Amino acid sequence: MSERAGLNSWELIRAANLDYPRNSIPVPSPGVGGSCIPKDSLFLEHAARTAGISLPLISAARAVNEEGPTRIARRLSGLLSLRAANVFIAGFAFKGVPETGDMRDSPTLALLEELKRHGAHITGYDPAVPSDRIAALGITPVKTLEVGLRTSRVSIFMTNHQAFATMSTRQLIQILPRGGVVVDGWGLFDPDECQRSGLTYIGVGIGT
Q1: CA distance 44 to 74
Q2: Separation of CA 44 from chain center
Q3: Residue 204 vs residues 10, 45, 75, 128: alpha-carbon distances, Å
Q4: From CA 32, how far away is CA 94, in angstroms rounded?
Q5: What pTM does this model have?
Q6: DSSP state of 24
Q7: Model confidence pLDDT, tens digit, residues 34-87
Q8: Are 115 and 38 in contact (CB under 8 A)?
Q9: DSSP string over 104-159
Q10: Phi, psi (5° rounding) for residue 76?
């Protein structure tokens, strides 16, 4: 809704939490992976069906989470032709905090399949995942984040690794080619500053 309405859901969540005691409101992301949440929700649904109970909220939540990578690919393909486009992915583990090299059910894997289907040329980097494991996915690993950003038209941040979160918007702008596209899966960068610099900014949960 925020994306369609031109709102920034990160700002809305911060405002909702400001000076008000409540549980932390979850923030948007490119999807949910790992070995726990996806299977545990399925176990819960199965147990409910066995007891003759329907849990539509659980089913809907899983559907939304699983659609995350597809929505990113759809937004990108509506913006530019991905065929033979140089696309860089930052983050292959299923989460960045705490840092892990675990790629089980990572949303990045689903995004990869979508990008390959569109014919993109893909490079990738993850500070916690060895290059040979990235290469085994059928894409080209790069040695540093900066190399990946500098050599691609589209850069997609799929995790909030500390190495990504500590990069300022100004640093990002200085590295990315002018006219490039940045997909910010974790609200790491300032949308207005990116766009003023000539970049096209796509944020999960952020409308521009």
Answers
A1: 30
A2: 26
A3: 10, 27, 10, 23
A4: 7
A5: 0.91
A6: P
A7: 878 788 888 999 999 999 999 999 889 888 888 999 999 999 999 999 999 999
A8: no
A9: TT-HHHHHHHHHHHTT-EEEEE-TTS-HHHHHTTTSEE-SSHHHHHHT-SEEEE-S
A10: -65, -45
Please write the tens of the pLDDT for every residue from 117-145: 999 999 999 999 999 999 999 999 999 99
Region of residue 174 (phi > 0: left; psi between -120 and 50: alpha; otherwise: beta)? alpha
Report which DSSP code applies to 96: T
Element (H, E) at 202: strand 200-203
CB atoms within 10 A of CB 116: 15
- Side-chain half-sphere of 134: how many Cα atoms within 13 Å? 23
Geometric angle at alpha carbon 98, from 167 and 23, rounded to 5°: 95
Distance CA 37, CA 28 (A): 16
Domains of the chain in sequence order: 2-16+27-203 (3.40.50.720)
* Residues across the chain: 208
H-helix or E-strand spanning residue 45 = helix 37-50
Amino acid code (one letter) for 181: V
Tokens of 48: 């409910």
Which residues are 121's β-sheet partners? 86
